[in-house]
Automatic annotation (TrEMBL):
Chain ranges of the AAA domain: 1-165
InterPro entries attached to this UniProt entry: AAA_dom, DNA_Partitioning_ATPase, P-loop_NTPase
Gene3D superfamilies with a match to the protein in the record: P-loop containing nucleotide triphosphate hydrolases (3.40.50.300)
Name under which the protein is recorded: ParA family protein
PANTHER family from the UniProt entry: P-LOOP CONTAINING NUCLEOSIDE TRIPHOSPHATE HYDROLASE, PARA FAMILY PROTEIN CT_582
Species: Alloalcanivorax venustensis ISO4
Amino acid sequence: MKTIAFYNLKGGVGKTATAVNMAWHAARWKHRTLLWDLDPQGAASFYLGVDQDNPGYKAGSLLKGKQPVGRLKRETRWPHLDVVPADISMRNADVKLAESGGGKNRLKELIAPFGESYELTLLDCPPTLSPLAESVFAAADYLFVPVIPTHLSLRAFEQVLDWIDGKKIKNLQVVPFFNMVDRRRDLHVQMLVKRPALMKNGLKTWIPYSTHVEQMGDHRAPVGEFAPYTPAAQAFRALWFEVLGRLKL
Ligand SMILES: Nc1ncnc2c1ncn2[C@@H]1O[C@H](COP(=O)(O)OP(=O)(O)O)[C@@H](O)[C@H]1O
Ligand SMILES: [Mg+2]
């Protein structure tokens, strides 16, 4: 099993949108897929239609190891795609992981048993440089980082890289990609044409700025489901194949 995280210390850059679309593609290609929503806002759970059928279980207690993941796991309406939904009890995930003992490897330990049932686990992360992020870095094989082609967004990505460097995390591949690309903007075009050095290990595929991505909330579905022939859907499809090429599932 491979574990991939969608992470950035910046919010609103497309972590959730991408995680949901990648999970959907993985499942469509019949990989047994689990998305673990680690963000207390629960946007990924919402998009995948599993935010309301949570019969009193608290996602946060899962981190403490007080309840088996299997109890919280939900099937989605798509074959091969399950979700561990988030709720507001995830808001102090750091504290809960700490209480459970085991330090920054605790999340990795919680994920390990998924290997029996899944080929791919995706983590949709909240925007933070907290101990939760460290646990994610320890648990993931790949960290996919959406970056908007602006100087500030690149700077935030550089801060993530510096932080990871400082932590001496082993075996983590950090893979950025551009999201919300608007080719009417000169800066965006410049960054696509002459890729900043920071993006050199990045994916070639970029996701355009698209109203169809915003419409995921109306449809509560990945873009490929309700607008399959649009540039955004095609871009997510291409991104999936590039991701798959890296993962070698
Ligand atoms: N490529 C895109 N084009 C247009 N809107 C986008 C795109 N990617 C994300 N968004 C929108 O931007 C907002 C933030 O995206 P989201 O995936 O929730 O970011 P994050 O998880 O990083 O906070 C959402 O309203 C989403 O619909
Ligand atoms: Mg998000």
